[in-house]
């Protein structure tokens, strides 16, 4: 079992007290977000889903960063979070967009078990867990696909784009490699009927974090309504 900074007898793992910005970001679901932070910093680290030194960075590096994806999402639709792992970014998205149908896709048993426990513990009725590889899911069955630290964009696109309905959108959380990955993926995206691909820098003054997101739209159909940084449909 990985080592952990969490004291096993402590009622609340250190680093999980909700920061000031969390109330603005999660609103009436703040208690659920706080419970999720506690699960990440406790069982999530104990089971190796997060590194042993991540307890103090659960809110900013993980929950806050993931919550930023919701800035580009519509209020409704069906979303697959592939390679969901510890539930990032899927669970923060589900908390911020409670009318979205969120499917956490995770092939590994220990991770999918953790996700199921989290969903049950938080009472997330808009979230389901599917233990499966993304490429095995029914094609053209989602309006949106998200991913964080799953695979380089060329490979990720091959898993994600076939899952999207016409006009659907892939939102991939990336870091400094976003531009290089997008250029490398251009030919793959063309073969997979991607209509446009852009890099979005998303910030939230309350959170004090920023995120680099590659947004890829699939050709055809009615355009999936996503929201831009100004809150307007894009």
Describe the secondary-structure layout.
Blueprint: H1 20-26, H2 30-46, H3 58-67, E1 77-82, H4 90-96, E2 100-105, H5 109-122, E3 127-130, E4 142-148, H6 153-160, E5 164-174, H7 178-191, E6 194-204, E7 209-218
Parallel strand pairs: 1-2, 1-4, 2-3, 4-5
Antiparallel strand pairs: 5-7, 6-7
Function: Specifically methylates the N7 position of a guanine in 16S rRNA.
Subcellular location: Cytoplasm
Keywords: Cytoplasm, Methyltransferase, rRNA processing, S-adenosyl-L-methionine, Transferase
Please give a structural write-up.
The chain has 234 residues and is of the alpha/beta class. The protein has one domain (20-218): Vaccinia Virus protein VP39 (Rossmann fold). It is built from seven helices and seven strands. It has helices at residues 20-26, 30-46, 58-67, 90-96, 109-122, 153-160, 178-191, and strands spanning 77-82, 100-105, 127-130, 142-148, 164-174, 194-204, 209-218. The chain has a seven-stranded mixed β-sheet with strand order 3-2-1-4-5-7-6, with helices on both faces. Helix 6 (153-160) links the parallel strand 4 and strand 5 (164-174). Helix 6 crosses helix 7 (178-191). The chain is globular, with a radius of gyration of 17 Å. Residues 1-14 and 230-234 have low confidence and may be disordered.
């Amino acid at each position: 079992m990985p080592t952990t900074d969490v004291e096993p007898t402590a009622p609340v793992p250190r680093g999980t007290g909700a920061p000031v910005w969390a109330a603005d970001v999660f609103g009436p679901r703040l208690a659920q977000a706080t419970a999720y932070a506690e699960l990440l910093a406790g069982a999530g680290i104990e089971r190796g889903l997060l590194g042993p030194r991540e307890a103090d960075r659960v809110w900013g590096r993980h929950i806050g960063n993931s919550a930023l994806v919701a800035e580009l999402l519509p209020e409704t639709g069906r979303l697959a979070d592939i390679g969901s792992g510890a539930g990032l970014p899927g669970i923060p998205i589900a908390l911020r967009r409670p009318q979205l149908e969120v499917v956490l896709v995770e092939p590994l048993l220990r991770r999918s078990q953790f996700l199921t426990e989290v969903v049950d513990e938080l009472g997330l009725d808009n979230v389901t867990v599917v233990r499966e590889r993304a490429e095995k899911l029914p094609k053209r069955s989602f309006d949106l696909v998200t991913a964080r630290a799953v695979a380089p964009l060329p490979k990720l696109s091959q898993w994600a784009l076939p899952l999207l309905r016409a006009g659907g959108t892939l939102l991939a959380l990336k870091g400094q490699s976003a531009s290089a990955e997008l250029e490398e993926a251009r030919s793959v995206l063309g073969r997979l009927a991607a209509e446009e691909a852009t890099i979005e820098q998303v910030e939230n003054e309350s959170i004090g974090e920023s995120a680099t997101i590659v947004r890829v739209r699939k050709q055809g159909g009615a355009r999936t309504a996503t929201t831009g940084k100004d809150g307007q449909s894009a």
